[in-house]
Design brief:
Blueprint: E1 3-9, E2 21-28, H1 31-38, E3 46-48, E4 55-56, E5 61-68, E6 73-78, E7 82-88, H2 93-102, H3 121-124, E8 127-128, E9 131-132, E10 137-144, E11 149-154, E12 175-185, H4 197-203, H5 209-223, E13 231-235, E14 241-243, H6 244-253, E15 259-261, E16 267-270, H7 272-278, E17 285-286, E18 289-291, E19 298-301, H8 307-325, E20 334-335
Parallel strand pairs: 2-5, 3-5, 4-20
Antiparallel strand pairs: 1-2, 6-7, 7-12, 8-9, 10-11, 10-12, 13-19, 14-16, 15-16, 17-18, 18-19
Helix pairs in contact: 4-5
């Protein structure tokens, strides 16, 4: 079923809480709903607005926003070792994590409390604490707006990378994700080597699924602001990936600089939050925008900020990091 809204206030539909409007917003359940919407050429301009947690509106949107609302979770196969699960695009991601943990299924527990919908997970290849969505995703179901056909992409065809996928490039503006399939395991496989996870899990009695979920949830709540209290989109910046020689040179000057393995062994992933902090920007504010005092990756709306003000402030943060370290940090948030 399609539900349509016109001249809609987007303030409650984006976690930054910027006050913009959209000419039209369409909530949809199925690919057939999308087919009917695009049958006669469809809207001239459109984009998907899922949970509104990774988007920054800088102006009123004069096109159509598409919002998935189907929220079913179905086990397609379970051989006792692994389970294949189909998840509709409108499922809250953290609800899915809780669903898996409650059933003793391993694979996405480290992604607890990430805001947003399941359909958005493959677009950004969401990740946290040493895990990424691509580790569990087997295939993605989508609707092609240019051919009016449903398609299924195997994970290998999704071109997953660090906060990257084919949906941000070749299929941008041509496909709407309707569901994902993920492969979860009945075998314990804790990943505790990132940040404070191991210590927090041990304090709860050891590496059970429930303890890992509770530990990561506690860590995130302690570090990240609640969007209901201060508008934000979570991590605003990506961790930069640099040549190993660049990382080595920086480590000579800053021995305590965190560094992590990258997919390419010749490169190293650096912690953008650490770079922002050491550039003197953690907790810094200008006007109605600031860097969160407990997590430097997060920009916060201090009250009434516009999207333009947020972008201008983000450029100031990028400039500070570039001047201090010679490193460019890119934005993670989708900017409209």
């Amino acid at each position: 079923m399609i539900r349509e809204y016109t001249d809609i206030d987007l303030t409650p539909r984006n976690s930054f809480r910027v006050r913009q409007r959209a000419a039209r917003l369409v909530e949809f359940d199925t690919a057939d709903d999308l087919r009917s919407l695009f049958a006669d050429g469809g809207p001239a301009r459109w984009t998907v607005l899922s949970g509104g947690n990774n988007i920054l509106f800088t102006r009123d949107y004069d096109g159509v926003l598409l919002t998935p609302v189907a929220c079913g979770i179905e086990t397609l196969d379970d051989d006792g070792c692994t389970a294949l699960v189909r998840v509709d695009a409108g499922v809250e991601w953290d609800d899915l994590v809780e669903w898996a943990v409650a059933r003793g299924l391993w694979g996405i527990e480290n992604l607890s409390l990430i805001p947003g919908k399941a359909g958005a997970a493959p677009v950004q290849n969401i990740g946290a604490y040493g895990c990424e969505a691509k580790d569990a995703i087997e295939r993605v179901h989508l609707f092609r707006t240019d051919t009016l056909r449903e398609e299924t992409l195997e994970a290998a065809a999704c071109r997953f990378g660090y906060r990257e996928s084919i949906f941000k490039h070749e299929l941008r503006g041509r496909a709407v994700i309707t569901a994902i399939e993920i492969r979860l395991s009945h075998t314990a496989a804790p990943k505790l080597g990132y940040g404070d996870v191991e210590r927090e899990v041990a304090a709860r009695g050891g590496a059970t699924l429930r303890n890992i979920r509770e530990a990561i949830t506690a860590i995130r709540r302690a570090k990240l602001p609640d969007p209901a209290e201060r508008g934000n989109a979570g991590s605003f910046f990506k961790n930069p990936v640099v040549d190993r020689s660049v990382a080595d040179a920086l480590s000579d000057s800053w021995p305590d600089m965190p560094r992590y393995p990258a997919a390419d062994p010749s490169k190293v992933k650096l912690a953008a939050g650490w770079l922002i902090d050491r550039a003197g920007m953690k907790g810094y504010a200008e006007g109605r925008v600031g860097v969160h005092e407990r997590q430097a990756l997060v920009l916060v709306n201090l009250g009434g900020a516009t999207g333009g003000e947020v972008i201008a402030f983000a450029r100031r943060v990028q400039q500070a990091v570039g001047e201090r370290f010679g490193i460019a940090i890119d934005t993670e948030v989708n900017i409209l």
